[in-house]
# Entry
Amino acid sequence: MNPAPPPIITSTAGLRREMAGLAPGLVPTMGALHAGHASLIARSASNHDATVVSIFVNPKQFEDADDFARYPQASPADVALAADSGATLIFAPTLHEMYPPGFATHVSVAGLGERWEGTARPGHFQGVATVVTRLIGLVEPARSYFGEKDFQQLQVVRRLHADLALPGEIVGCPTVRDDDGLALSSRNRRLTPAARRAATAIPRALARMVESARNCDDAAAVLKIGMAVLDSEPAVQLDYLAIVDPETLAPLTQITPDARAIVAAEVSGVRLIDNAGLHGEAP
Ligand code: AMP
# Structure
């Protein structure tokens, strides 16, 4: 039997009223929900009596107006998936509620928020950091759940959360993948079948790197192995593939126990990102 549909709250005042004294779990999303989001919501629901799923397509984190316009908006399917996964409240604020007239404060995380995705998408992490700070301030969650799929975002959020002494904890959750290894992403629906096949070179490259890191700690050698997989797929236009320190995201020359491989590439006009712990499970 399906659970009772969670209320959809669109105002910050309504949210505060509903959540007063509850210390819920918070799962921030931009809608277009899939099994990756469901895993975060289910994790929260297993830990908290109340779970708020926010659905807000944040214009501040899209530097490209077309990308923003193409981004899927919240739908009844999102509400159903959130409910089935254990959400007790959906917060889907209007733009006006999130950024009321006079809104003038921005949060930016220096260094960490400026490299990799920060270079490719100027202003992106400032948008993320600002909206996450505001959401945590509004919800006052006991824990906020984020996916490792967006590894740099998770680390930016951890940093601002610590620096600004925000309430609760930040919990990182493992990347959910399709059977072909591709990390679930709302952008995948824009891939043609051929582009999708080509895109599997991304998790294949990461998997080969994880395998080779078992008996090699030379980052350049392991990078070369990943690069060869990506080079073999002409439809994949690489932006970056790097082996980095997980805290600072600075490139490493020697692979440490918690080193991370991060990758971004465009496949027929769709920008995809992925990552893996080099001493973790292969994608
Ligand atoms: P988004 O709506 O794409 O901004 O994502 C909302 C949250 O879901 C973020 O914390 C993402 O990292 C997380 N997420 C997105 N895709 C996945 C995935 N495939 N596995 C796990 N978490 C994910």
Summary: The two ends are 34 Å apart (CA to CA). The mean pLDDT is 94. Residues 108 and 147 are 20 Å apart (CA to CA). Residues 29-30, 36-37, 39-40, 146-147, 149-150, 173, 175-176, 183-186 surround adenosine monophosphate (CB under 6 Å).
